[in-house]
Amino acid sequence: MGNHSIRTALIAAALACARLATPAADAADKDAVNPPPSAQDWHALSLLPDWSGVWTPVISDQVAQEKSNRPPWNAKIAKQIDHMYAEEAAGRPFPIIDHCFPTGMPSWMLITHNAFEVLFTPGRVTLLGEGDGNRLRRIYTDGRAHPADPDPSFHGHSIGHWEKDTLVVDTTALLPQAYLAVNEAVGVPNNGDMHIVERLHLQGPDTLADDLTITADKVLTKPWSTTRKYYRQRAQKFDIVEGVCEQGTYTDAVDKNGNAIFAPVKFHNGVPVGSDTK
Amino acid sequence: MKRALLMLAALAALAAASAPVWAHHSFAMFEPTKTLTFKGTVKTFQWTNPHVIVWVLVQPDGGGAAQEWSLETTSPGVLTRAGWTRQSLKAGDKVSVVLSPLRDGSHGGSLNSVTLLDTGQKLVPSFGKEQPGLK
Prior knowledge:
The structure holds two protein chains of two kinds. Chain A contains six helices and 14 strands. By secondary structure, chain A is α+β, with helices and mostly antiparallel strands. Chain A folds into two domains: 2-238, Calycin beta-barrel core domain (Lipocalin), CATH 2.40.128; 248-275, no CATH class. Chain A has a nine-stranded mixed β-sheet with strand order 1-11-10-9-6-5-4-3-2. In chain A, strands 12-13-14 form a three-stranded antiparallel β-sheet, with no helix packed on it. The radius of gyration of chain A is 21 Å and the shape is globular. Chain B has a single domain (29-123), classed as CATH 2.40.50.140. Chain B is built from two helices and six strands; from the N terminus they run αβββαβββ. Chain B has a five-stranded mixed barrel. In chain B, 39% of the residues are buried. The chains are: A alpha+beta, B alpha+beta.
């Protein structure tokens, strides 16, 4: 408990420094190091809740929440969203997750059909997702602040701390292009300045809940809170397999020299309609 | 002439680069209310993320060259939870497939089920059961 309080205080102090974005804070960023973990750091991991295994999303709940808990879209965005639902119904889905870009945050947690796993190492919680090799979240739990001028990314910059058995994650520095999506064909880019706070915790012995509060002032009229649930799997046949999205645009073939190669797939309106293999 | 060929090659490269390639996409471009059933031979069972593709060669009723159909379904991880494996289908397997075709009439569809004609085994893609501790 004492450690939690100290860590929380440290994070608050660090956050205050980051908000000032003074030259001193910049200097601190440049000089910061990742120290070698101590035996105590490794021991501390054993006191954390057990989040081992593979977590599969509760997709039926995602679908139910599309109707029961709609994001408070602003008027301009709401029109786009209505249009996207109409397009989806007409068989012209908007390709939110195309081109093998990472699904990104918060859409990964909101709409994924794929599993993920959670790794605890000293100073870090790491989420590794199935389906796309770039589906990876690094959450720093070493008490650092967000950098003064972070590089924007699909998954943003995440810092976390433990409040009892709940991991509280603060994510910023998201690309404006990162989608806030409610399904694979309905959603919009956050357009900048999105901020996500998550509270990840076990809701039962084998259910992980992620309570998200998403602030995205360019597209929402107020912060939106929602929860996503994931079920734990322990059978080894569900271990996460390699996912290289670009492999989906190629198929197995043999070239004229007898070498195993990937041959490009022909696409029409976004879906494969033939391969170049003979 | 050489310059013209280079220009053609450059244009072709540009066209290839700008062609829409959506490796990962929603399934709404398929017509869920329509189903087609036909028999064919598996050309390739593409067990890859983000979408598994069953490539099937189909002999048209009126004769002529076999048509290649791409039947897409969900990801290896999701199919594994529904009981499939990378070995579920292999090239040369004679199959009967049920699919929801592309709305634009191209030779592609969303796979509803595939039955191995030799054994009668029917494989159905799904998200699997939603519960913890699946066996």
